[in-house]
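Example for tutorial group B:
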């Protein structure tokens, strides 16, 4: 399974009242669970800034992550961005397997 980070910005029309956030969240998550049952949701945060939510989830591949983002867009009347992510220990191990910079530069 691969890890993905998704940022979501809701359209103002989608959330006319504070209670509409929960209704929208239930609709979006219901669609994701039904269409992508293999997805594992790891974290969800409401954030302040140009996006409303930051979610971290695991999916078997990029296509499944794109399905999640599309379902959230449709159900949540939202804009989404999805990024692949790697946990620091795995990234560090990958770095250690790379050659030194000097050996990459052609003479």
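The residue assignment follows.
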């Amino acid at each position: 399974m691969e890890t993905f980070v998704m940022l979501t910005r809701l359209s103002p029309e989608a959330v006319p009242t504070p209670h509409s956030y929960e209704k929208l969240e239930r609709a979006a998550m219901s669609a994701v669970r039904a269409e992508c049952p293999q997805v594992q949701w790891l974290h969800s945060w409401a954030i302040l800034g140009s996006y409303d939510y930051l979610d971290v989830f695991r999916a078997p591949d990029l296509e499944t992550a794109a399905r999640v983002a599309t379902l959230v867009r449709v159900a949540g009347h939202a804009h989404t961005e999805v990024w692949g992510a790697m946990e620091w220990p795995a990234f560090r191990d990958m770095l250690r397997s790379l050659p030194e910079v000097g050996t990459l530069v052609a003479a």
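The chain has one domain: 2-104. Compare this with the pattern of hydrophobic and polar residues in the output above.
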